[in-house]
Amino acid sequence: MLIKILFIVLLLLMVIHLFRALPSIIKGQSSRPLSHYLGHRLLIAVILFGLVVIALLTGIIQPNPSPYTL
Asked: Membrane-spanning residues where (predicted)?
């Protein structure tokens, strides 16, 4: 259950960084460059992907079985 909450928090952080970069995209001026926000989103995505892979390999989460196999 804790890992699912962590996934949700990381996804929310990605959305927050997306909206923080929005004024920089629209106005073209900001105190920080656009790459700063996009770099944070990329880092969060890499962490999230790594956590999913680790959770799958350790058995903490299980993928859905294929509906095509009997």
From this structure: 37-61
